[in-house]
Every structure is written in structure tokens, then in C-alpha cells.
Amino acid sequence: MHPPVPRRALGATVLSAALVLTGGCFSGSAGGAADSERLSVAMLNPPRSALNPFSDDAFKLSRLGIAETLVQLDEAGDPLPMLATEWRQTADDTWEFDIRREVTFHDGTTLDARVVADALTAATEARPKPRILDGVEWDVRAEGDDQVVITTNFTDPLTPHRLSSPQLSILSPDAYQGDGNTVDPTGHGSGPFELVTLNGSDSAALDRFEGYWNGTAAAPGIDVSFVPDGAARTAALRTGEADIVEAIPPSQAALLDEGTFREVPMPRTNTLYLNTREDGASGVFADPAMRAAVRAAVDAEPLVESVYESRADLADGLLGPALPWSDQRPERGEGPEPADPDGARITLATFTDRAELPEVAATLEQQLEAAGFEVEQEIREYAQIESDALNGEFDLFILSRATVLDSGDPVAYMVSDFSCDGGFNISGLCDTEVDDLLSAAEQEGDPDARRTATLEAERAILETDAAIPLLHERVIQGDAPGTEGALFDPRERLLVGLETHRSTD
């Protein structure tokens, strides 16, 4: 059972916001406060689904302080109360959550158990489902006004962790429209900032929500513009146009003054996915020996030293130094002998939103062609390439992938990316041993045993050569002089807290 957390202690960890350059200038104030008091934040990716929480846009709802979940995670990845104050497992397949009272949504609706049950049910019925629910079936019901009961289709000790995913944010009933796949967070969140305006993929404006249940934010509002170009984001920090800048490219960090950015290993791995489908793309990598030929050809060390300017860590597995226990991984089998590529024609794809990835693709193309492949590159913005990658249109795909983003636990990521029924299975891998090991890891409740099971599943995945981890990225966040109280979250869920503000001294 988990007691409620103190009012200000919780609020200091749940706010977030962002502003990004558009056409060389920042969005204007949407509220009545002076522009000089509002926060401007430069963010990496524009919204892809109009901030629908069932998509990856959910993490912008979290970082912008618009919407909240039942559970949040502490720095170690353990669950803490948010919109739920306590929870308990009453049977192998049943969990009860007590819902926080006196929470008001931005549209004036009051939070209760029915609102929560309906929101979570909408998530389970969405198509596609939020990836945090890959392989999971939930029955969600309200018990009175204050309690929600979740019944799972298997013994799932990760249930509270899953409820921390921003993809399971709780919005007011009016947010859910039409067939349930359309969700509009504008004016329907419960967080400290209300989304007032979303201007497509260009900008957004947020105002402080004076009725926030956990206190009052120091900043009167946030102006957001979305700029994929890393040099533009960095320039905004150097010129003082942005107070907070996320995802500073490693190549740009050297241009910044000391003390204006922070860097730390993050649970994000740059991985080369190989399409194992017989009917996918060229079908070349349905052959394990051809996948082994790619593994033998790829050398990630030049990527770390040159492309990332040594601001990354060479990968030995899917999980990296942000998870200290990952270095306890078991020894990996040697796998099949590499085949002779013999001029096999393959397509290598990635996206432009992360500035380093096209450079990674260029280096890998050289390495693969030196090994005997003929390589054609396909590079687009992520929003225009994701569906083709998931549909198996490419032989190889380079992805910068967060490994604990959804639940704070890497098992959900592995199930999503590498199980037969995974919703983000770019490689199309379907392997009985992998599925069995992932299932065992999912059901393990003891933390140490779960980590051991997770590393066994990682070993089995790597032995298929369906994914070749290249490097582990570091998060580099810029804070302009005079910006105080900005949050620094390697899991990329939080950015602006209740105390974050622009100093007037």
C-alpha cells in the first residue's frame, strides 16, 4: 500500500513544458501575463497525432504538464502516487486503485473513479492500442466514486508501472470523441498547465491552470514551437530566445558555454533493425546467415567517436549504462557463420528528426558496401516514415529507441519491439524462445529475478540478429542563464516543474 506524497514534493516532479522555434521566432503569449514572465522552451519533435495520448504524442502531454497519470515513477523507476493515492494487488490478476479526490480538470469536470475507468477503457479499445498495453488485456471498472479495479489477463506485477505511461493519461470525458481513437486534450487535462492552442506541427500555447490540485506553478504560461533542426534549437539557447532546450545534438554542445547544458546517460539506444520477414522488402534478412553478415560488417566505434563526438556510449546490448544492472548480462552465443552478401541489394532507412541518424546511415552504408552489399538509402522525417517501417518496407532501419520510456521497465519495450504480437516490431521477429523468455520476465515479480530474466530475453533477441545495438545516447538539455528549477529527466517525461521560472534578478 502506498501513502499519498506531500503536496509540493509531488508537484515538483510532475510539471513539464516546451517551446520550439518556428520560422526563426517564438510564439507569442496566449495569456494575459507579460511575455518576459512566460517560459519559452525549444523541443525536438512536432506532434504527430494532434497530441492524442494513445500515440507517442502522449509524452508531450507529460512534458508540457497538460495531463497526468494514476502513477508516476521515482528516479529508480519505482511507482509513486499521482492521480491514484494508494493501490494493492488483491488477487493474481486483480489490482485496486484509490482515486485522488478534489482534482478538477481544466474544463471544470471533477475526477472520479468512473472518469478514470472510462479513460482507461478507451485506451484498451483504441486501434492501434497504446504500446504499453502490447500483449495485455484489461477489464477496468469503477467501484463507487473512489476506487478503480483492473483485472488483467495474466499475473502482471508491472501493472502500476504501466499506469505511469503518459499513453494512459487521464483526461476529462469530453476529450474522447467519435470512435474513441480521436482524443482532444485541449482544455481537458488535469495538469498544472492548460493547453490553450495547438497550431498543427508548428507551435502551442499553454496557460497556468489556477485550479491545479497540487499547487500553483511559478510560471504564468508556456509558449511552444516545434523545431526538428538541432542547430536551430541550439542557436535559440545561445541567443537567449529559449529558456529551456531539449535534445541538444552532440555536435552542437561544443558551441555552448559551460554551465548552460547538462549531460547524462539515458535509457535510449541507437539500434539497427533487420527485417526478418520473408515477404518484407527484399526478403534478404529472412536468412539468419545474411543477418550475421550485417553483424560482422557493422562497426559502431566510428559512430561514437565521429558522429556523436564521443558523447555516447558504445553498445554491448540493447540496454545501456542508464540501467546499471545491464552489465550483468549472460554470455551470448556465437550464432551462424556470416553468408557472403554477393551484391545483395538492400534498403537502409532512417529519419531526419535526430540530426545524427542520417550521418549514422552514411557510415553504415559504407561499411555494408565494403562487405559486399549494394545499399540504397531512404531518409525522411519520422512522421512520414514510421508507418512504412512498421509495415516492413525496408530491409534495415536505424532507430533511436527509448528502452524504458513507457513503464520504467525494459520488458514492455522488448515485448513491443521483439515479440510475435509486438505493436512496434519493425524487424518482424517472431521467435518462440524470445516470446517464452519475455513472458517469463513479464510475470516475474521479484526485482532481482526480473532483471535476470530480462537479460536472458535480451540475449535471445540479440542471438537472432534481428537487432544490432550500436550505441547508447546521452541526454543533453540546455538551460539558459536565469532559468531556475528546470527538471532534468533521462526518461524524457518531465521538463518544467512547479518551481521552474525565469529569474527576474
From TrEMBL:
InterPro entries: Peptide/Ni-bd (IPR030678), SBP_5 (IPR039424), SBP_5_dom (IPR000914)
Pfam families: SBP_bac_5
Disordered as annotated region, ranges: 319-343
Domain of life: Bacteria
Solute-binding protein family domain boundaries: 79-423
Protein name according to UniProt: ABC transporter substrate-binding protein
Organism: Marinactinospora rubrisoli
Classification of source organism: Bacteria, Bacillati, Actinomycetota, Actinomycetes, Streptosporangiales
